[in-house]
Write a structure and sequence with these properties.
About 65% of the residues lie in helices and about 0% in strands. By secondary structure, it is an all-alpha fold. α1 packs across α2, α3 packs across α5 and α4 packs across α5.
């Protein structure tokens, strides 16, 4: 299993050049690997946000962000609210 999620490391795992890997991944998944990984990490954090007792900073680090600020900016860009405000929103079913 590949320890790194970089396009270079993943491309090596499947014996492809980085550019070929990115092109193939994008054609199969519909988005570049970095966008897919970003969405995956943010969705994982969002699903944990209400149930977890972790602080926003701890949650940010657990999904691979180096700072709470970078995580909060990315979260707000994707979901429309910063994580602290999203955590406080009522769930509507």
């Amino acid at each position: 299993m590949c320890a790194s999620w970089s396009a270079e490391a993943l491309a090596r795992e499947v014996s492809m050049s980085r550019s070929a890997f990115v092109q193939r991944f994008t054609s199969l998944i519909g988005m570049p690997p970095i966008r897919y990984l970003t969405l995956w990490r943010l969705q994982a954090a969002r699903s944990q946000l209400r149930e977890s007792q972790k602080t926003i900073g701890q949650l940010a680090y657990s999904v691979g962000y180096e700072s709470e600020e970078a995580f909060s900016r990315a979260f707000k860009r994707e979901f429309g609210l910063p994580p602290a405000r999203w955590r406080g929103q009522q769930v509507v079913l």
